[in-house]
Amino acid sequence: MIYYWLHGFLNIIFQEIFHHFYSKFYSKKGDNTSIITISRGSYSKGKEVAEKLASKLGYECISRDILLETSAQFNIPEIKLIRALHDAPTILGRFHDGKKQYVSYIRSALLQHMLKDNIVYHGLAGHYFLQDIPHVLKIRIIADMEDRVKEEMNRADISAKDALYLLQKDDDERRKWGLHLYGIGSL
């Protein structure tokens, strides 16, 4: 039952995004936006929305590919890149630029992709990396915490209390990361 409701809800969201995007950016011939970034918390169905939107528009949908490319290009283990994007800086970590260097490598790889246009990006930190680019449509998906908790409970086979704790911790880490590197918690 929840699957069908969620599927219908995602279709409505998708249709609204698509119609808004189409009418706003394709209403004038030759005047369009061809980069979309989708940010969201864990278990907010952002991947599904991004893939469906990219498919409908005929765009490339990218996410984790950026980390894999960065890892290969700069010879850095993927786990270090993930931690650079996910974990808030520690007190000691604020005094050195290692994490910032990894983040700049990832941003460089992402911006290389953006040169191709016709991209939907739904990976970590895209809304930060592309915040100053005017022709990017930035979408933030905010899911109900109760639904996110249920997803985490099913995925990790843990209690609701533990799932809520993990999600709140994850959200807080992302907020602190954004504050430290960009001066904003989330977009």
Structure overview:
This protein is of the alpha/beta class and 187 residues long. The protein has a single domain, classed as 3-Layer(aba) Sandwich (Rossmann fold), CATH 3.40.50. The chain is built from eight helices and four strands. The chain has helices at residues 2-25, 46-57, 65-74, 78-86, 98-114, 126-129, 145-156, 160-182; strands at residues 35-40, 60-62, 119-121, 136-141. The longest helix is centred in the first third of the chain and has 24 residues, at 2-25. The model is unreliable at 1-5 and 21-31 (pLDDT under 50).
Search tags:
187 residues, alpha/beta, Rossmann fold, four-stranded parallel beta sheet, 8 helices, 10% strand
Outline the fold blueprint:
Elements: H1 2-25, E1 35-40, H2 46-57, E2 60-62, H3 65-74, H4 78-86, H5 98-114, E3 119-121, H6 126-129, E4 136-141, H7 145-156, H8 160-182
Parallel strand pairs: 1-3, 1-4, 2-3
Helix pairs in contact: 1-2, 3-5, 4-5, 7-8
Distance between the termini: 32 Å
- Separate helix tally: 8
Helical coverage, percent range: 55-70%
Number of distinct beta strands: 4
Global outline: globular
**What would the CATH topology be?**
Rossmann fold
CATH class designation: Alpha Beta
How many domains comprise the coordinates?
1
CATH architecture descriptor name: 3-Layer(aba) Sandwich
What's the CATH superfamily, by name?
P-loop containing nucleotide triphosphate hydrolases
- Summarize the main sheet: 4 strands, parallel
Rounded radius of gyration (Å) = 17 Å
Averaged pLDDT, please? 77
